[in-house]
Amino acid sequence: MVLTKSDILQGIKTPKKIMIENLNGEIWLRPLSSAEIDEIMNIEAQGYGTFNAKAMQGKTNADAKMNLAKMQEKQAEAKYIAIHKSINNANNSDGWELNEIKELPADAINEMYDKIMDLSGASVTTKDVESFPED
Q1: Measured between alpha carbons, how far is residue 19 from residues 92, 97, 117 in Å?
Q2: Tens of pLDDT, residues 103-124
Q3: What CA–CA distances, in Å, run from 88 to 17, 29, 129?
Q4: What angle do CA 99, 103, 108 make, to 5 degrees?
Q5: What is the pLDDT of residue 129?
Q6: What percent of the chain has pLDDT over 70?
Q7: Cα–Cα distance between 108 and 100 in angstroms, integer?
Q8: Do residues 35 and 44 touch, judged by C-beta distance below 8 A?
Q9: Are 81 and 40 in contact (CB under 8 A)?
Q10: Contact residues for 81 (Cβ-Cβ < 8 A; gap 6+)
Q11: Is 84:95 a contact under the CB 8 Å cutoff?
Q12: Burial class for 86, CB neighbours closer than 10 Å (0-12, 13-18, 19+)
């Protein structure tokens, strides 16, 4: 089957009914677009800190400064925004505010975020981990 532009773009506009165990029920979530995934990843990256690496005579000297509180804050913000974008779709008649999403239990937030990333094709797979260079 040859796909048309509208067929391809329909993917992010087509919510799927997803079981959320931590909420004991199903909810309609839509996949995130590539641009939305980039936005979420950029928010998370803001919490990573600074990393410096210098190569001299075949050796690499590296140092890093991390702020764990900021890292946690940016990871949480990314999850809330991803859920907000995904849950506000044509199949959910209730409009969700970002503050309402922040009121959900932490386990539900984590599960919903993982399901959204899977649905969007943006989750880390075992193959990704296995192919990551060790040195």
Answers
A1: 14, 21, 14
A2: 999 999 999 999 999 999 887 6
A3: 13, 8, 32
A4: 120
A5: 47
A6: 84
A7: 13
A8: no
A9: yes
A10: 39, 40, 43, 98
A11: no
A12: buried
Single-letter code of the amino acid located at 11: G
Of 45, 34, 4, the C-alpha closest to 121 is 34
Percentage of the residues of the chain whose pLDDT score is greater than 90: 59
Q: How many CB atoms lie within 10 A of CB 120?
A: 22
8 Å CB contact between 83 and 113: yes
Separation CA 86–CA 88 (nearest Å)? 6
Q: Model-level pTM?
A: 0.79
Where along the chain do its domains lie?
A: 18-123
